[in-house]
Amino acid sequence: MSYIPRAAERKFLRMSGFFKAVLVTGARQVGKTTMLRHLAAGSSRSYVSMDDADERELARSDPKLFFQVHKPPLLIDEVQRAPELFEPIKVICDQSEETGLFWLTGSEHYEMMRNVRESLAGRVGIMHLYGLSAREKRGDTSTPPFACDYASLVEAAGHSTPMDIHAVFADIWQGGMPAVQHADQDMRRAYLSSYADTYLLSDAVREGGIKDEDKFLRFLKACAALTGEMVSYTTLAEAAGITAPTAKEWLYLLAGMGIIYLLPPFANNAMKRLVRMPKLYFCDTGLCANLSMWLTEETLQVGAASGHYFENYVVMELVKRFSYASSNARLSYYRDSNKKEIDLVVEEDGLLHPLEIKKGASPSKQEVNKFSVLDKATLQRSSGGIVCLADKPMPIDKQNSYIPCWLL
Q1: Percent of the chain with pLDDT over 90
Q2: Mind spelling out the 3-state secondary structure of 100-165?
Q3: Which of 86, 130, 149, 270 is most exposed, with the fewest beta carbons within 10 Å of its own?
Q4: Do 263 and 309 reside in the same domain of the chain?
Q5: Could you tell me if 145 and 21 lie in one domain?
């Protein structure tokens, strides 16, 4: 299988040129190791994996000897399995002025991140890698600045390939794991089912101390059934036969493993009566669809949950875009006690960009009227609109536009 270029490459290499160590976190099988080995090809950087039992035993029992055998520049895969390496990595970094000494990959589990922050503060840059974005699948690794004003959308449309509803839902159903991009339906389903039964369960048992695998699988499927909805620990607990505190613990375990993404609620000191619970999305829509037994893209497209999957897709496309871009943004959703809701609020450079997400080619223009609730915030409301399946950008009013999802 040929390598698929990643939008994260440029940012990673900039970080490697600045930090002495760079850690790439993310779920299993999203391409962390593949990307770093591709970037290291032809260089003097050597590779070692902590999934190798012998190497892991050496790293854990005698980390000093480990680094006599494996000298930087070094790529260490699944470093969370040998936390004993963090302290000697710190010592080696402090003894050298070189940058990019260590490239690390690992699961963003709480314990590992605590070790990284305690041992490597100021020495390590951290990047989260997700599965392939729609842009990457099309061979586009650019990360243009975010803009949703009409003029910028028209400009972007001139350099993009339109996608109709069938192409979008094929993308959603397929998901972003590199291994399934060229697989047929049967092999894709077998791979994702095996992924849940092997990687997810083994990591959950090892890192999260999960003892009841059947209940954890039921919990995972309950999360998939509630994608795009505000988190309810009670609902998840009842579905899995566990307590609400356990449901909360397991939910944040899945978030730490890079399986789900929790979109925080909008918060602003000038606004009261806002909800405090996050919304639940899957980082990989293909895995989510497989867990919920949507066996074909056609059934997913016309199914009762299609709107939630489309929303999940749009949110994650923007999460990926900002993760690899040079600019930072805060993503949230707005909901108040009066049940007024805005699907996505992008906060960038002191401006608020409200976005509604609708599975349709021409949703009602009235959807943008609710954006005025943000005028009470301390930050200024700017351009926004409705992300949908329109075939081209169209203005709604002076600030808002119909935004084709394929422009994200």
Answers
A1: 82
A2: CCEEEEECCCHHHHHHHHHHCCCCEEEEECCCCCHHHHCCCCCCCCCCCCHHHHHHHHCCCCCCCH
A3: 270
A4: yes
A5: no
